[in-house]
Amino acid sequence: SSQPAAKKICAARRWLREAVKASPRLALAHHFLGMAEKRLGNRRKGKQHLRRYLALRPKGMLAEDTRRALR
Question: What are the CB-based long-range contacts (under 8 Å, 24+) for 31-37?
Fold first, then answer.
């Protein structure tokens, strides 16, 4: 049953990649793209996007979750 979940994460990742390409300062898209990349096993890429979220919104509503995900 993880296969359908992985397909959904891949679809979300495609959409989020387009979002950050169109709007590089869209912090939430970086957060969720980072989480998706990590879930799909791309830790380095995931951390890159999570760090970008924190650079854009160091005190944002997901800052603590983002810091936890970077540990």
Answer: 31/62, 31/65, 31/66, 34/66, 34/69, 35/69, 36/9, 36/12, 37/13
